[in-house]
Amino acid sequence: MRVAVLGLGIIGSAWAANLLADGHQLRTWNRTPKPSVPGGAPDPAAAVAAAEVVIVVVADPSAVAAVLDAALPALAAGAVVVQCSTISPEWTRRFAERVHAAGGCYLDAPFTGSKLAAEARQTVFYVGGEVADLDRVRPVLSGLSRAILPIGAVGSASALKLAMNVNIALVCEALSESLVMARAAGISDDTYFAALTLNASRSGVSDLKEPKLRAGDFAPQFSLKHMDKDLRLALDGAGSLPLPQLRQLKALYARGMKAGWGDEDISVLMRLLDVQAAG
User: Fold this and answer.
1) What are phi and psi of 249, to 5 degrees?
2) Do residues 5 and 16 make contact, with C-beta atoms less than 8 angstroms apart?
3) Residue 57: helix, strand or coil by DSSP?
4) Residue 277: predicted pLDDT
5) DSSP code per residue over 176-192
6) Are 137 and 53 spatial neighbours (Cβ–Cβ below 8 Å)?
7) Are strands 25-29 and 53-56 parallel, antiparallel or unpaired?
8) How far apart are CA 231 and CA 93, in angstroms?
9) From the CA atom positions of the chain, what is the Rg in Å?
10) Are 3 and 53 spatial neighbours (Cβ–Cβ below 8 Å)?
11) What is the Cβ-side half-sphere exposure of residue 225, based on CA atoms within 13 angstroms?
12) 80, 125, 149, 171: least buried by Cβ within 10 Å?
């Protein structure tokens, strides 16, 4: 298919490589040009002009709005915009209205999976929107993923994605605090993680973050700045829900952002615990 990928960050670059390997006709665009990624276009309009499928994977609602401002005048009638950025249900419904008004179709399609998952075609898509639109883009998304989960109407997938990211952030923080306690008691990391492997609390998050926490390697799989944005969006949409742990965790993320760790992995918040333990 003729596919445009708008946004070539950690995930977009991995998807672009896999789409090209699958034989799709690919055009790409990134705010900061990436000559290493094939199919580069000078602007979003040029990228989407002939596309049947337009994948948007950028940082936040303002970035999505800017991309659509530039791309929609050139969008082909009936093209499906697959909006994969993590944004709120309210924002995704607004963007769907804009795409429909421009003659396109819209899928609310956030995903779960880090850099490693994207490279290995193990992304999981949560999809909100018309089943017929999903069926049209399935040949593209199937090559990038291990599962595609239809969730419901536009906005429902974004709501689920924020809930999932809250869970990831809380589990990662619990893992870090637990590890700090074990280290303070003189327990080696080898012993700690051997015990965790046999414990009911073992998770995909603990498996993914174990090597990072052991080595103090905070190169981004999921950057702190992006999770900070997701937690903010989750709280913005939570209304009167109490969510006490989420509110406390958001304060820790604010400290990490203030420390200048935004481009590092979410596990970098371990540094806050190490400082406290040392003190």
Assistant:
1) -65, -40
2) yes
3) coil
4) 61
5) HHHHHHHHHTT--HHHH
6) yes
7) unpaired
8) 19
9) 20
10) yes
11) 12
12) 149
> Residue 274: which pLDDT band, with cuts at 50, 70 and 90?
confident
Residues 181-208 have a mean pLDDT of: 97
Are the C-beta atoms of 6 and 56 separated by less than 8 Å? Answer: yes
The pLDDT assigned to 276 comes to 63
200: tokens are 């009911």
Q: Which two tokens stand for residue 262?
A: 């935004």
Q: Which of 276, 256, 277 minimizes the C-alpha distance to 268?
A: 256
Does residue 97 register a pLDDT over 80? yes
Q: Can you state the angle between helices 224-238 and 156-184, rounded to 10 degrees?
A: 120
Can you list the pairs that 135-139 forms with residues at least 24 positions away whose Cβ atoms lie under 8 Å?
136/52, 136/53, 136/80, 136/105, 137/1, 137/53, 137/80, 137/82, 137/107, 139/1
Instruction: Read off the pLDDT of each residue in 106-127 and give the average, rounded to a whole number.
Output: 95
Tokens of 231: 């937690």
pLDDT over 90, % of the chain: 93
From CA 137, how far away is CA 207, in angstroms rounded? 32
For 60, residues 6+ apart whose C-beta sits below 8 A from its C-beta are: 85, 87, 229
**Three-state secondary-structure class, residue 39:** coil
Computed over every residue of the chain, the mean pLDDT equals 96
